[in-house]
Structures are given as structure tokens and as C-alpha cells.
């Protein structure tokens, strides 16, 4: 046990058994001897309904890697925009009230927020942080309210303005704002109405899960390696933001040119539509594997010749680096990106592969064909360059150690802005 063991509260709407990087952070902190409590909801991402395993045995999911889990009820995200909005609202109200009550009598040295959507999950953290007199750090992985407009959840300017005021309230009351991309700084400063100490804004990118960084070859149960075809793998959330109409258009454009198979693994709000399109277009070069555990992804990636990341064209998405980019780079495979902004910059800067503009099916087809006809030795060199870039910029041990120190620094400052 460290002499100065921290009592840390992690507030996150999403947590194990959902596959999230916050799981890694909690494991790291407990391994370092810190006392960690997680305030979270009921697992329902990305399918939209509470996991059957949780319903069958909730007690089994009350502890993770030595951390105590405090779960509060919420409305599952479902498949519609209205249920998603209710999901967001239900967690932060439930966590702010019932969550605070469940944590009565407990003391904390630091509060950490996993700030993917919705940013309102930071509200219970700020409330509890004030009650416990503990500094609050928010890891901002999504830009609000702009991301709501980008995915079509809210388009009304008045409503977006109201959410913007909530975001400003949150940002101005946190001790540290950790930003996953350099592109986030300008946007976040816009909502900081008070003069902000530059030390409060910290660049803190994502890392890849350990399985992707392993040099040990892994066999896949999901797919067989086929050297007679060029295999492109997309893994992750199948949502509107990922631009699947253009991906399927690119797959259709390449039919009959060179043997290419497109393997899509994951689940989400677009899953049914994708399945219908694959069937109606008779795209026998597209394989839909559905959702599978994270630990099966390294083996699947080993069967790939290229890994695909995509986001629709949008000023918010342009500033974002999807978490899968780090996993792709760590895996040592070439990367194809139909994506703009920061993620495209990383792909180009690393030399890991090729990127084209978001939503451009013909360009995606072109760079896919280019990579498929590139010598295998050159593709291997691209993959190695990507892995080297990952180790130099997104090393998990380095980032987590840095965060641990940041939490310690916050306990010394204890000067949450009013």
C-alpha cells in the first residue's frame, strides 16, 4: 500500500461489464493500492437494454478489480432519440440524489469523471465533490452541446443554448479539465466564462486496452485468416455518426475489382439498417459479425489487412480522435480512415495508413484499393510505424501514471473554483 493512499470516487454512466477505458483506470488505481469507489448506472450500452446477465445476478456486478460499485437506476438508452435523452437525464438525476445518499458517510480525496456523453454525468460528481470537499477532475471525451447537434439529438438553437449554459456551469466548477484531443482546447475555453488557470486544462488522450498492445499472436474464433482476400475490419459502435452509408457504397464500388471483404463487428442504432442494406444490395463481400467481447478483438484484428475508422463530416467530429484509433495503432495493422480533422492528422503523421474525407465513398474505395494493391512488406511497415507512434504518444502506463499524479496534485490544491 502506498503511504499516501487516495480515496477516489469515479463517476461514470458507463462501466464494466460495458467495454470502456474507465475500467482500465479503475484497475490501475486499485492495483496501486488506492481505495476506489465507482458511482455508475445499469449496464445497457450499446444495445439499449439492461444486460441479461446483470438482471439475473446484480450482486455479481457490485465489485470490479477491488473497487466497490455503487449503481443507480436509469432508463435504458433504447433505439430512439427520445429514449436516449431520457437515459441521459435519468442517470444524472438519479446519481445526484440517490447516488449522493448511497455515498453518505464516505470520504473522498478526489472525484474523477469519465466524460463521454452525456456531460451531465459531471453534475453529480460536482455535487458530491462539494459535499465531500474533494476536488473534481473531468476527462472530456465528447464536446457538448455541439455533439448533440452533430448526431441530430437536438437541433433547436434555444435548447442547444440551454445545454451550453449547463456545460459552462460544469466547466467553471471543475478543478481539472482533461481534454482527449488538441482540437478540444478552443471549444472548451469558449465555455469557461471565468479567467481560467492554464494548468487546469490538461491534454490527456486515450490509450489502447492491454490486449491490443500485446506482441503475442492471438487466434480468432470469429474469423479465419484468408490470404486470397484483402480484409478490412471495422470494430465498434454502429451508429449514425460512423457514416455507414458511405462505407457500404465504397464496398459496392469495389465489387469485382479485387478480392476484398469488409468485416463489420459491433452493435448499435444502425445495426438493423446495415443488415437490411447488405441483404438488399447483395453485398456478399460484407460480413456482419455482431457484437463480441473486447478480448476477442485482438484475434480478429490479426486476421485483418487493414482497420477502418470513420466519422461523418462535422466540425465537432473533426476535433475528436475516436478511441479505436489508439487500439488500431497499437495492433500494428495499417489504418484506413474516412475521417477528417485530428484523427486524419494522426493517421497521416504516424505513417500508419491512408485517410480520405468523411462521407466520401469514392475516395474510401480509392484508398482501400491503393492499400490492397500495396506490397505486403510496405503494409507491414505501415503497421509498425503506427505501433511506434502509439508507444510514443499514447502509452497506457505513462498516461495512467500521469493521471495518478494529477489526482494527487488536485488533493493538494483543493481550490475548486466557485
Give a short overview.
By secondary structure, this protein is of the alpha/beta class. The protein has helices at residues 21-31, 52-56, 81-102, 122-132, 146-150, 157-171, 185-191, 210-213, 244-253, 271-280, 297-302, 323-331, 341-350, 361-372, 376-393, 396-413; strands spanning 7-11, 35-40, 63-64, 67-71, 110-115, 136-140, 176-179, 201-203, 230-235, 260-265, 286-290, 306-310, 335-338, 353-356.
Account of the protein in words:
The structure is a single chain. It contains 16 helices and 14 strands. The two termini are 34 Å apart. The radius of gyration is 21 Å and the shape is globular. The protein is an alpha/beta fold and 418 residues long. Helix 3 (81-102) runs parallel beside helix 4. The strands form two sheets. The protein has an eight-stranded mixed β-sheet with strand order 3-4-2-1-5-6-7-8, with helices on both faces. The protein has a six-stranded parallel β-sheet with strand order 11-10-9-12-13-14, sandwiched between helices.
